[in-house]
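$ run holo --ligand "NAP" --emit tokens
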Amino acid sequence: MFTSMKNRSVIVTGASKGIGKGIAKVFTTAGCKVLVVARTLRNAEAAAEEISQAGGQASAIMGDVTSESDMENVATAAVERHGGLDVLCANAGIYPQTKLEEMTSDEWDDVMATNLKGNFLSTKACIPHLKNSDYGRIILTSSITGPVTGYPGWTHYGASKSGQLGFMRTACMEFAKYGITVNAVLPGNTLTEGLIALGEDYMETMAASVPLKRLGTVEDMGNAALFLATKEAGYITGQTIIVDGGQIVPESLEALAEA
Ligand code: NAP
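-- output --
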């Protein structure tokens, strides 16, 4: 089962740290060749080096998902380095926290540009190459925040993460004729550098609200993405997998405490 990933060519955006690096690690462990994309080249190189040291096939490239030309360069580089392109993991995202009353128009635009337009630009750049694969896969990293839940300070973020699913549902229809599937992983709170920056209190409170009583790991997210990337998942498109330890399930704090 799930033997189809060996030597698959994979792009992971936002892979110098956090969930993206976890996805890159899980895919290389399954035998894929991964292009690690981030804006800060030295961090992308460090992540690729760490993966290579562990026996995986990874290399780095600088790319900003808000730039059309950067995304075209990234897609071309994957084809040149790996001999083709099979999977795009559109993972790069930012989550600055600002309440709506204080939010500036620029802050709104920045979040939309990275989280939503970044999905459009990376997908558009990769499609011509994914069409040449015997099967193509696009996996978006969305979130529970927006599609399922809300959190103060994240109106822009929640809107962008819901927007990704609207994008996915039409893109999957347009690309079905090429055998390309488009799906999304919706992480709950996951232990990443970005989340740790939100502070110890935030992490402890969030872990306590999860029925499985721990935050997610980047490998939890990578495993879900890997499943969606397999040949065996080829009849799944336009769908979401929530990976949150059951966080969205309890209907109240009392329900959680009683369990
Ligand atoms: P993170 O630890 O802050 O890492 C973000 C990664 O994205 C870095 O590699 C960063 O590198 C890159 N990046 C940021 N802006 C970029 C841009 N414009 N172009 C290219 N790369 C860019 O973030 P994370 O927590 O792993 O989150 C990754 C994804 O998971 C996001 O889409 C986020 O919304 C989603 N998510 C996270 C959680 C969580 O709990 N952590 C929960 C739900 C969903 P550079 O800064 O060098 O570019």
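-- notes --
The pocket of NAP is lined by residues 13-20, 37-40, 43, 63-66, 91-95, 114, 118, 141, 143, 187, 189-190, 192-195 (CB under 6 Å).
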